[in-house]
Amino acid sequence: MGNRQCSLGGNLGGVSLGFLVDFLRLDGFFARGYTTKKLQGFAADCSLTAKKPFATDGIAVFSDRAVVSDRSLRICLELPLIPCFSSVLSFGFSLKLSMTSSSNSESELGFGTQSVHAGEARQKPNDAITDSICCASTYTFESTQSILDYLKENHDREEYGRYGNPNEKVVERKLAVLEGAEDAILYSSGMAAIVGLLMCKLSAGDEIIFFDQCYHRSREFCVKHLSRFGVVTHQVKTGDMGAMESAINSKTKMLVSESPTNPHLTVIDLEAFVAIGKRHGIETLIDSTLATPYNLKPIAWGVDYVWHSATKYMGGHNDLLAGVICGSKQKLEPVRKLRGILGSINSPHNMYLLERGLKTFALRMERHNHNGQRIAEFLESHPRVQRVYYPGLKSHPSHAFAKKTMKGFSGLITFLVKDADWKQTAAIIDKCKIPRIGPSLGGVESLIEQPMVMSYFDYPIEQREQFGIYDNMIRMAVGIEDTDDLIEDLRQALEAR
Ligand SMILES: Cc1ncc(COP(=O)(O)O)c(C=O)c1O
Question: In terms of residue numbers, what domain contains 351?
Fold first, then answer.
């Protein structure tokens, strides 16, 4: 049940007068399914507070005048006025509504149902099953009064495209439900998301601590750029909770980890990580891109912020860039305001693609998990493979934490080819017929690459080895193709001479 409140004011001069009322954020409520009778029932739930008592019986609510656009419901209330009431009403009144909202129960649905339905209006403009792409850079007001109402009542409507758009809002609501978070803010890329969050949360003199396997561009942003604004970055060995705690001082504002990490697939003991943050009153952030909310729910472990490159599994089709930060409404409120200034927003078209990608999120993740596990097991058993990094394998150093925190282990696998130099390793990649060669992960198409060539070609070998990037390392982002086809393809590539 959700309580929605709305104020009406106005001069009622005639025998009957129609009021257009904006009931905003009526999650899951839809007008067309509501017959006049139901709307009358709905109106009967209204408690009217006027200067003098006023019966609700006199209200007729016409379903054919109830319009829903996304989450805004406009209902035309016709008030037959008995002359003696007109003086009462001329002072205006406020109308309180109680109604059932489906959004609160969305958190109880299964992940697959949430992926398909959560965050969306049940009945959409034009009665379409899909959300229309709303291509507006600005949004208009009926009158000056409606601007004032919007500002005073903090109505949830659009104003200007840099602050958000209806397509983005649908996806934000869906992602918040999937992540088990109060709120989610979308950005135009994963990097735009972390930059937006850190720019909001850190000030000159503050310090931030990263585990050293966190996505390298996020560390680079802090080391090279936030440093220019007086923010100090510390990097400690991934998973070394003692080192992280020792690096904390009175200026520390945030602890950051990825889980699992890329490309070593190290899984963090979230319980210990969160406990450090809580002990010192410091906020925690997890880059959960590789896990996805299908496999891991950092907020349920007590993490403050969850960060995703939605470009990866969430989009799922290698056709969009987006990023998201999930967390509590209170913590994210200033972050959203800053996004409105930074302008790292998503186009409605991009959000349509992301919403569409998310419809099959659960199905895709199930398949990525399945393929990932089977292919990792195949690779581990192959004589040409020296070592496999996959958290679903017992041989992985963080298998225990993976089992403790994750439902499945996603589709990213890293492995070392036995006795191979970088060219022999590259030859295996070039022989693969199904996975395409390229960076990124999380799409339906499998991708394969050699991190030394793709991401670290400019680094001297000593530095690469310090990062654990070896010349004979291959990273495969397993897609959703048939498992046996992928295994046979890898077998022929490994065994070709
Ligand atoms: C784990 C991880 N986090 C964050 C990012 C950044 O996301 P984006 O490329 O969408 O900016 C990436 C990109 O590769 C990533 O792999």
Answer: 133-359
pTM of the model: 0.81
Considering only residues 81 and 62, tell me which one the structure prediction assigns the higher pLDDT. 81
Q: Is the CB of 287 under 6 A from ligand 1?
A: yes
Judge if 430 and 299 occupy the same domain.
no
What is the CA(290)–ligand 1 centre distance, in A? 9
Dump pLDDT digits (tens) for 215-244: 999 999 999 999 999 999 999 999 999 999
Contact (CB, 8 A) for 413 and 379: yes
The pLDDT tens digits for 460-495 are: 999 898 899 999 999 999 999 999 999 999 999 999
Q: Is 323 in the pocket of ligand 1 (CB under 6 A)?
A: yes
DSSP letter for 316, please.
Answer: -
Find out whether the beta carbon of 191 lies less than 6 Å from any atom of ligand 1: yes
CATH number of the domain encompassing residue 396: 3.90.1150.10
Same domain, 466 and 410: yes
For the chain, the domain total comes to 3
The residue count for the chain: 497
Residue 23: is its pLDDT beyond 90?
Answer: no
For residues 311 and 346, what is the distance between their CA atoms, to the nearest angstrom? 12
> Which of 213, 266, 285, 311 gets mutated to test ligand 1 (max ligand atoms within 8 A of its CB)?
311
- In whole angstroms, give the CA distance from residue 214 to residue 467: 11
Residue 495 near residue 487 (C-beta atoms within 8 A): no
444 domain-assigned: yes
Q: How far away, in angstroms, is 189 Cα from ligand 1 center?
A: 8
Cβ–ligand 1 contact at 350 (below 6 Å): no
- Token couple for 285: 């952030």
Residue 104: its pLDDT value, please?
54
Residue where a domain terminates, one of 70, 94, 118: 118
Q: Is 189 in the pocket of ligand 1 (CB under 6 A)?
A: yes
Average pLDDT over every residue of 16-20: 30
Q: Is 372 in the pocket of ligand 1 (CB under 6 A)?
A: no
